[in-house]
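Consortium newsletter contribution from the modelling node. Members have asked for a concrete example of what our holo predictions look like. Here is one, prepared for the glyceraldehyde-3-phosphate complex that several groups have been discussing at recent meetings.
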Amino acid sequence: PSGQNPTTPNTHLEWISKVRVNTHAVLKRAQHVQAQKIPKKQWQAAWLLKAVTCIDLTTLAGDDTPSNVHRLCLKAIQPVRHDLLRAVDMHDKGITTAAVCVYPSRVADAVKSLREANSSLAVASVATGFPAGQTPLETRLQEVRVAVADGATEIDIVINRMLALTGQWEAMYEEIRQFRAACGDAHMKTILAIGELGTFTNVYKASLVAMMAGSDFIKTSTGKESVNATYPVAIVMARAIRDYFLCSGHKVGFKPAGGIRTAQESLVWLALIKEELGKDWLCPTLFRLGASSLLADIERQIYHHVTGQYAAYHELPMA
Ligand SMILES: O=C[C@H](O)COP(=O)(O)O
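And here is the predicted structure:
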């Protein structure tokens, strides 16, 4: 289907061995991005609504049930209170989050809730032994197939960190290629778990391998590692996306995820993407924010913009 990034033959993997990332330059660039002024007033409200449309609204917890997944879906369909959207004249723009993201066992619940609400919002499922990826390959492949059969149209796979840490890039390419095939028409986001890859050079290499193997997005983290989405790592991944685009002509998306909780951070992420990849990437087809508890703060800031006051917690119900 259109929009899918095709697999690049593995003969191009020699590129990987030549890669070296300049750590100092990356850290300097990250500092520069973070030091930028963020937009204020109505411009800030507009950017925050843009961030909302890029959120993969996520619940990935052991105690997820059909009812909290149902609430998550309703929140994804109506992420900001109608009266607040009306106040900024955005009530008729169909603002929703980009997708909901759940564990494979909860996909059917999410699909049912969205269907009953007459919504065509995408359901993303994590898969392949999320978060550690330490299950047999056949089990990981089967998990992808089951999530797709249950109605997930986006699959967030995790890479096998063992293969990255031992430099088995070809084997990693081969696994991801098989996940791609198992996804069928579903879009595939590949989680690198950057907190466990050791070096920026490994992050860059893993990004390239994931893209060559056919990933539609590369994603920083599961949210379960001790280090998750960071700006320096994002710069390394964005450069890999840019280099891959220059070589192949294919635009691969980027999804920072894990520990993103404040409206302010979402603005920095949008600024980083605009600077590193350009405006084309500032849309849900090429940029997602994976987050379980970001939307509440964004809605609070929009409430403040509209009313001049901060909302009490009961005024903005969150899934
Ligand atoms: O993919 C999304 C992440 O798991 C969400 O992480 P978070 O719970 O830290 O926002």
